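Because discrete structure vocabularies remain unfamiliar, we reproduce here a specimen of the format, pairing a chain with its fold in token form:
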Amino acid sequence: MNKPLSGSDRKAIAGAARGIAKATGLPNWLYSDADALAREKQALFAAGWAGIGFVHDVARPGDIKPVTLLGEPLLIVRDMDGDIRVFQNVCRHRGATIAAEAAHTTGLLRCPYHAWCYDLKGRLRQTPHAGGPGIHEHRDLKKGNLGLVELASHAWLGVVFVNLSGKAAAFGKHFRGVGRRWADFDRPMHFGGEDSRFELELATNWKLAIENYCESYHLPFVHPGLNSYSRLEDHENIIGEGPWSGQLTRVYNPQIDPSGRRFADFPDLPQRWDRSGEYLALYPNVLFGVHRDHAFAILVEPVAADRTIERVAIFYASPDMLSPQWAAMRARNARMWKDVFVEDIGVVESMQRGRGASAFDGGHFSPVMDGPTHHFHAWAARSLLKSQRA
């Protein structure tokens, strides 16, 4: 249980919820104190919908993938009907974790401690010797009441989301407006495969990765190559009416290989996507980018107050783009995005070091350029203060 915020802490956090012209950023301790993550787990992650994995992690019925979110052991499962489910990765007997690594199963999950077994819908099926040697039942063990604890989950644009608290609004309502804005992309996403995934480790707080992604203000200074063809003035802020924000570009051009080929477009896209790309942060920890011919998703995983892992996956419009004939172009696309994201590492790590300055007040915002980042700060501030009143 987190201790109550002090009056000075509440005041500092509330500064981020003010209008952008008068707001200050979240206070230093939320980026550097070890106990800040425990507070954020309840207020920012458990209360809403957090990303924990990718749909392709459990591509086939019977696939399972254990993950951990801020110390919470979870298990992503594709059951034998093809439905994706998320359970607590904990046996109901003595609390041992059931799965230690990703695997393909024939339909049963077996606890390694006493071999209690569950099916992929979480139902308890076997309790070996529970009534004594060779006796596998006991009248006081009600299997129907001892299934795995299932959590509310939702798969969207190739990402698996979970609501740890079970109290959030339905996914579509929680992210109101995002579904409408990106309805053109609400269709199967085809993961590019091993050449279309990579991870980055950052010596920074997870929030700084989100804040940086939200805005295009830094393009000329951090991404001069990108800014040469997708300039700052070609971008526009996106402020969501819910827990999301980001930016768009009006000058997206699909890549073309030396033979003149380019990736297939998503079918039946409206004309507005001919030259546009959009980049949204869905709070707390999922970053998306969509374009006429490919999309990507980034899961931002907090590991410690000053350590974050970004897991990146790139998706294509057509399964034909997954063939070996497109491997070189997929790899080039992945390298391009990795180069862009690597350019951000230095600045977010620099901001993390800056949180050691005792006189830093959380920073201030450009009323014109920092709208998406301020929106994230204000959401986090309101959520943290609300959790104190709950």
